[in-house]
Amino acid sequence: MAATTAIGRALFSFIFLASALEKWRALRAHGADAALFQSVTPALRSLKSSINANVGVDLCALLPSDHALVRAATVVELAGSALFACGYALGAKMLILFTLSVSLAMHPFWRSASEAAVLGDEATAGIEMIMFFKNIALVGALMFWLGMRSELSELREASKAKEKRA
Fold it and tell me: pTM value?
């Protein structure tokens, strides 16, 4: 059972680890000119303007630059995937934080759907919706792992207490 869970965590972590390492490579090689920023900047700009419009105050002025946000997200993704692969709950929590924030920022299918109706690009809206819900499923799997981990811990402690009484 221990080998199965370790292999499962490693396979699950691989998607995050490979993504983070590729982002880190691109950031180191190209810096602010990386193609990564060309795809991320419009989404971040849209998210920031949506936040400002809904809040009524320029809260996004308090945020660091897009470059710093992407670097921070990459570090969270890299550290979280490594920690999760090693079986640490902190890694799962970091991946949940990363995945939820990135999903909301990068895959806002609800906005894409209204834009798609105007632009006639329904395929893009559909892809964004699939990517968003795939990420939510990954969050669900991480939450399931955290829940099972705590339940197994409680069962072990109850079993040890029962053995001491016997």
Answer: 0.82
